[in-house]
Design brief:
18 helices, 9 strands
């Protein structure tokens, strides 16, 4: 998974750690009255800092259950967990990465249709996103063996509210409107960017192009799941549509020299009107989180990438960002189900949501409005939620291929390849059998 720089800055590095109630005693029962159960929860996300408030609230509500949490770096997690499960190490709950990892560990996961009704009620699925259920079940052979902890979407535009207001402009919704805003910005502040993103990082260029592709429909899913070609009129239109932002002077070629950290810095230092990245950068919307991390921007909102072609829709590709499941050999599945239900369907989803690391699959998910110091910030968060919930395609990336495709987008934008040449390279690579 790609490194999420700002969310790491705002929440702390994910390190191996422990989070548990004081005086917890191990138990193999299911939380019977008078006995205490300790659930061992292994994950790569969230960090102990991010979930501490949620865990404490759960333990207060369930004093007979304590959570013992181990957090690892993502790659280490992928390597260690399958081996630990194969030897039946004492693990009750695991984080499930929405990738090949889910397929690798699915045989060790309990069928949640069998154990969730007692913890969350027979109608628990009515409280849960149908789209998230479908996406999760695709990863586990049609069975419900994981639930969504957070969803993400990209690319979302985080904009400097004060700067936009200073220009006397509204949030641009189309390419033409964005061009007008960019011209006003250039006239007043020639050295500021109308939009920044990590153009040096191939996967980000791929994300930007695929966002344009999604504005015209779900062709990405047809490619990802049904064998449609990359060398197609749909992808050609997306490559050309993305390039229009450069042709119209909205994005500048020096954006291609910015990596993730430098693009982020340009925006947080006030040198860019809009910063494009995934929804994991939504902590930027909170004045409190910005101040805690030395970011001096007065106000931040969120918007969709303006629509390129007439008839297109403002959208993102969205997908499961992190999941959670219960280990099938655990002798504490009843207590584990209570914990999973609390995190995904109960009050815990809203408490954890204050971290703004993503949106929940809980239908009635809401975060505290006190996190947002302005109407623009609150509307920005609502925009993020709406975009993720209504994404036209899955953000189910093939990481290695994404870097290749993104490099071809870079070559087309900088003029070293025609769009036809870039698409032929992409098609050949995808058909190579490597992926």
């Amino acid at each position: 998974m790609k490194k999420k720089v700002m969310s790491v800055i705002l929440a702390g590095m994910l390190t191996v750690g422990m989070l548990s109630g004081c005086g917890a005693s191990e138990g193999s029962d299911n939380g019977d009255a008078g006995k205490q159960v300790t659930l061992n929860y292994w994950t790569w996300f969230p960090s102990t800092d991010q979930i501490e408030e949620t865990v404490k609230a759960f333990e207060k509500e369930n004093p007979d259950i304590k959570i013992n949490m181990t957090v690892m770096e993502s790659k280490a997690f992928q390597e260690k967990v399958p081996l630990a499960l194969s030897t039946e190490e004492d693990i009750d709950v695991i984080g499930v990465q929405p990738s090949a990892f889910a397929e690798e560990v699915q045989d060790y996961l309990a069928d949640l249709d069998e154990i969730m009704p007692e913890a969350a009620g027979e109608d628990w699925k009515d409280l849960y996103s149908e789209k998230c259920l479908e996406q999760g079940n695709k990863l586990t052979d049609g069975h419900t063996k994981m639930l969504v902890l957070t969803n993400s979407g990209s690319m979302i535009g985080y904009y400097n509210v004060a700067l936009l207001n200073e220009l006397g402009c509204e949030v641009p919704k189309t390419l033409e409107e964005y061009k007008s805003v960019a011209e006003k910005l250039k006239e007043k502040y020639p050295d500021k960017y109308a939009g920044v993103f990590a153009g040096k990082d191939a996967w980000v260029m791929d994300e930007m192009m695929l966002t344009v592709l999604g504005q015209q429909g779900d062709y990405y899913n047809k490619w990802r799941y049904d064998g449609a070609d990359v060398d197609s009129k749909e992808y050609k239109a997306a490559f050309e549509g993305f390039k229009k932002f450069f042709d119209e002077g909205i994005f500048t070629k020096d954006t291609l020299d910015l990596d993730y950290a430098s693009a982020t810095e340009e925006f947080t230092d006030g040198n860019a009107l809009v910063y494009y990245m995934g929804s994991w950068e939504s902590p930027l919307l909170s004045k409190q989180l910005r101040e805690n991390n030395g970011i001096d921007l007065e106000d931040v909102g969120a918007m969709a990438l303006p629509v390129v072609e007439e008839g297109g829709v403002a959208t993102v590709r969205s997908y499961i960002d992190s999941g959670i499941g219960i280990v099938d050999y655990s002798e504490k599945k009843e207590a584990a189900a209570k914990f999973v239900a609390y995190l995904t369907l109960g009050e815990g989803a809203d408490i954890f949501g204050k971290q703004l690391t993503g949106t929940s699959a809980k239908k009635e998910f809401a975060v505290e409005e006190s996190l947002f110091a302005s109407e623009a910030a609150k509307k920005g968060w609502d925009t993020v939620v709406e975009l993720i919930n209504s994404g036209t395609a899955d953000r189910n990336n093939v990481s290695g291929y994404s870097d290749i495709e993104g490099a071809e987008v870079q070559s087309y934008i900088n003029g070293t390849k025609t769009v036809e040449e870039a698409l032929k390279t992409c098609q050949k690579e995808w058909a190579s059998g490597k992926y």
